[in-house]
Structures are given as C-alpha cells and as structure tokens.
Amino acid sequence: MNKELDRTYSRRDFLKITTALAAVGLTTSLTPDLLYGEAGTDLKGVTIDYWNMIGVQNPVVKQLSESIIKAFEQRTGAKVNTTWDTYGSIIGPKYRTNFLAGKIPTVFDAISSWTGQLRSFLRPLNDFVGEWDSETKEPVSWLFPLIKVQNRGFSDADQIYDLPFLVIPQAPVVTRLDHWKKAGLDFEKNWPIKDTDHFLELLKAFKDQKVSEYPYEVYGKIWDAGDTQLNGWVRSLDIEKSDFLNADWTRSNCDSEPWIRGVQFYVDLFRKYHYSSPDSPQSTDEDAVEQLIRGQKSIVHADILNRGTFLKRIPKEVEAGLIQWGPHFPMAGGTTGSVVFQAMASFSITKQTGPDAEIKERAAWEFIKEWFRAENQIALAKSSGLSARRDVWDGLKGAPDHYIEAVTSMLNNPGVWSNHPKSVDIQYNLFAPHIQQAMGGADVATELKAYAEEVNKILKT
Amino acid sequence: MIDTKPRTRETQFVSTREVGLWGRMLQGDRWLIILFLLPTLAFLIFLLWLPFLQGIWMSFHNWPFIGKPKWVGLQNYRDFVTASYFWTTIRATLIYSLSTVFQLGIALIAALALNQKFIPLKGIWWGIMLMPYAMPPVVTGAIWMYLLDPNLGMVTHYLIKLGILSEPIYWASDPTWAKWVITLVVSWTFWPFMFLIILSALQSIPESYYELAEVYGANLWQRFRTVTWPHIRGAVLAAFIIRIVWNLEKIDQPFQLTGGGPGYETSVLSVLTYRFAFLSGDFGMAFTVGIFLIAFMMILMIPFLRRFQILITQAGKRG
Q: Taking the model in full, what pTM does it have?
C-alpha cells in the first residue's frame, strides 16, 4: 500500500502538485477549497486499487493523474492505491497473468481496443452510465455508438465495459512553416492537404528544393505500422473494409483491394518515391517528430500525444506558430468522406466479490466521474489527447499550433479498431512483420494475403 | 570385530532379499548421499522435466493464455513448418549460432595472448576482458544500439569521417545487416565466458612441457599443436557446447536491437518462442517452436558431444 496516500494532505503536497501543473498552464479539480476543507465522508473507509496507464505518456499527465486522485480522495474520503503501469503491461502478459492469478485492480485505464482479452473480468457500466447526470453524459454520448462498433463481435456489444475519457484520432499531420518558405510553397493555399496526390506534390517540392532529403516518414515499427496513418487511407477507400477485421470478426479484411491499394501507397512513399528514410522499416512517429524538430523532416503524421514533445523541446517555436497541425487526408479517389481511426483511452471497472463489492464498484465509478469533470478534461486535452467531452473543445481552440482544430475537424464518422480478445496480436504483432517485408521489396498483395491467413487462423480458434 | 570371511554369492543374495531395495539404498552413509541429492532431483523433476513434458503436451493443443485448451494434434507443427517465415527464422537461427564460433575465436586468441609471460599487469587486462560479460546484456545491447545508430552513433560517424562509408548503414532495416549485427553483438557480450574457461585450462599446463618442447626446437605453432591444444581441447569443447545452448536461448539482445525484424529476418527461434508465448499468448505454438529450438540445438551439438565423449574415454584409458 502506498503510504503517501495514507495521510492527510499538507499545504506542501498541494503546492508541489499545483505549482508543477500551473507551470505548464494546467489546473485540475484539486482546488484549494477542496484541499483545505473537510474531507468528504460518502466513501470513508473504502479503498480501491487503481492501475494507471495514461501517466506513462509524459510527466505532466502523471502529475495530472496524481492531482485527480487526490481530489477524488478529498471529495469522497475514499483511499486510492495507485500502481503506475505502462502500455507494455496490457500488451504483454502482465495483466493477463495477474488477472488469472487473482491480482486484479478495482479500476484501471487502458486503450479500449486492448481490453477484450480481459472482458470476462470486467463489470458492465451501463447502470452507472444510465444514472449519470446529463450535463456530463450528454457531451460524451457521441462515443457510445463507437464503443458498440468496437465490440460488435461480442454477443453483449450493447454493454459498456470501457468508458473512453480521452480520444486519439489517428493521425493528424504536423509540419514546420520554415520548410514551406524554403520550398517556395504557399502554406495558406496548400493547407490542409487535400488528398494523397496533393501530398505527393508537396513532398516533391520539399525534396526537389533540397529542404529535406527525406521530407516524410512511413513507420514500419511494430507499434506504429498498424495504428497511425495507414487505416485512415484505407478508410477513405472503403469504410466497411477499413478495420483489420470484418463486422462479425470471422475473417480479416486485409487481403481486400482497398487494403492492397492503401498499403501499396504506404510502401511506395518509401520504395518508389524515396520520400521516407532508409530506416523506415524500423521507424516510429516519435522518431519522426524528433527529426521534424531538428529540421530533418518537413511533414510527418503523428498522434497528438506527441504534442507534449513539441511543448517540451521547442516551446518558443510552438508559441510563435512555427509548428502547425493539420487533419489527415484521403487517398486520391477516396470518396467515403472518412479518413480517421480513433484510439480511445478508457476506464474499466472489474467485477468485485465479497461483502464490500457493491461499495467498491460504486467508489470506482465515482473515481471515474472525477476524471470527467470539465476542468480535468480540459487539463488532459491540453497535455495528452482530445477530451471525451465535446463541450470543452471550443474553449481549447485558438492555440498557435491549431492542434484542436486539426483533430476535431477529422471526426467525421471515425472508425475504431475492434476490441477482439486477440486485437493486440492482430493489429501489431502479426501485422508489422508483413509490412516490413513489403517495405523490403516483397509483393504487397502476397504479404497481405499471408497476414490475412494468419489472422483467419486465429479467428477460427 | 571385523568380519574378514569372504561372502559367497548365496549369502549376498540372501542378505539382499532380506534388506530390500529401500534398505540397500539407506545402508551406511548412503542415506546422507541421497539426502543431498534430493533437492537437485526435486529441482530437475519439478522445475525441468515435468514442465518440459507438459510443454510437449501443450504443443499438441491450442493453448490460449485465458480460456480452455483444445487438442489440435500436429496442427501447430504443420502450421509452423508451412508458415511463410519458417525458413527465414531457421536461416536467422543458423547465422545467429555462428556467434559461438566468433566467441571461440576471440576468446582463444585473447587467452593465448594473455597467458604469455611477458604481458604486464595481467590482472587489469583480465578485468577489461571480462567487462562485457559482467554487464547486463540489456545494457550492452543499449550501448551497441547507440554506437551503431545510423544518425547519431559514433561508429557511423567515424566510418564516414574516415571515408570508409559514404552514407550511414540503416542496419536494423536491412535483413542481412540486422542478422550480422545481432550475431556480432551477442558474440562481443558473451566471449569472456569462453576466455575464462580457456585461460584456466592454459594455466594448468605445466611450464616444463613448454621448456621441453623448446629444447627439442619446437616453434610457436608446433608448441601450440603438440602441447597447448591437447591440454585445452577438452575445456574448449565443453565451453563451446555450453555456449551453443546459451547463445541460442538468448532473447534479450536480438529483441532489443531489432524486435525480430525487419519482417522475421532476425526472429531467431528463441525470439519467436517469446513472441508466441508472451506477446500472442499462444502457448501451443510457443512450445512447438521451443521443441524445434531443442531439435536445432541437438543437431548442432551432437558432433561436439560425441567428440567430447571420445576425449573423456581416451583420458580414462590413459588413466
């Protein structure tokens, strides 16, 4: 048990957290009146175990998490035992092993498409959501149909097991204005990018003018090949086939024509046009962001979680508008009107047993509600993803890099990756080697066929 | 009083029957020997053989991390052998196993050099030589990742500066380079083990043997062939066999350096086992690949084990 949480908060604790957050322009629900007032008693004596994953994103999000946890404890009198975890724990064996061994948190956050493997341990949240106040429920209700689509292969797809609190539309583009000037390009006329043909013209200009040797990057590394820009391009060609799996999770979509076209373009950016570096089969969006910061890239696709890197590395340039975010764009000829897949950071509550099961589940729900308070949603949106609550978006617009405008403009009929129990394997472990082979010169259609066969085999078992 | 009367075959037989098997095993101090053996036996049975046998059993199943296992017979073996990456991973494992040869080469040269009388400060040299082995493999892997980084690494920087390279080598994205890099990094990390064994064997050779060889006019190569090699070959063979097994089961550095890619080009059998077990949660396939790994090791080791056996027999005959 975390001893730090087993005592009342001092003025020093409060100042430590709030000052650190204020330094980056953030405030949360941990306000002075809450801190210095009498602690709540609704849930006094109740202890919940919380496994935090979002905190791994960057130090600011970790501080935000601490702040929200403390605010909840003060508001309710409950205690939270926090374990700071990483994405690797749910992608790898740690969560599965612990859950099977009975070491289960009361509540945890994760990426909602990765929790299918743990579904039998989770408690449906529909009754809690049903009694939620409309002021909070209404602005997040746009996500409920997406949760259903994400879980459509399960017989109880109507049940909400994962409640998204942050969304990560994949993937906006980010560029540096000085490169446009050097390439003789008019940013105002050419931004946002219309389609992949327009994109190729821009990249050609950057390369021909020797602004950057490899102005762009496609990602072959296991965690980025299958969840950055590629699915959006496939989606622009065919919405129904754009996910890795078909609607009832009985077969892979990836040997279909839209996939072959999408992946071929992805590979061509590297092999045919040479707009992407020789290291593409092993590159990541984090690497590409670093190279953009150093001026070695002109445009890259990157999820908005990378915004923290820009703020940390080149805050003055961000403030001066050197860095600009823009929406993802369709393949040339892609007419579906949708180009986005959306990752969602979500909360799940596990099934509790024993005499205090009900009160623990209630406490976990109250804890989740704390994260949905408007001030916390704004703070999270400024530091990590896009808040689940739509009602706070307008207030976030107007930043010099226009990141909120870019990502909110992408949310026209977004897709979501299936939450199949084997989704991590399907989307990442099995997919990346085939993309890397294609980047190495193998035939795209052959690789996708081999990949689809591997996935189909998993689906049969 | 000591009974000096010789026992007949008949009396021995009778006493055996009377005492019984357990009695015989516990006669005299034997119970103490058995007691000392018990922990090792328990370890071997419960932590090695039973899991191994269970692994073979699991390889005939679809055995998910969560959920009920399902008998699939030889399906996993069929799937693995017919997988598009099967020969890629076998080829990668074969090249990777060459790291044992590199380790032997470096270790033999280093040990012979440091065993010379004229080398000063031997203790310091030994310390330096052992350093790679003393560091955690993940640390040495990280060091090499940085050194060989195409954009930031020192190695690339100096090779370009010296005109040896015209542009960086993106080794992690190139199947051939990636395989050789993991092989060489593993060789560099683990060669000191062989160095230690060979050096110990060298130091056990009496100096008088060399003096005698010199008296007979033997040159450096002849002294090595007739004095040094016969004395160290047993140790070299033992170290070689151990390292083949240990190298082939290494996961950390290949996984850290390339993640098994590009494609499956550096997915040596041990990495593939890890991927199936801990990333895919498919224990049936993981154990199937594991059994292939054991078979692969056996094929590589059998000639060396036979040679080792012959050496032991010869040594026994010499008394």
A: 0.85
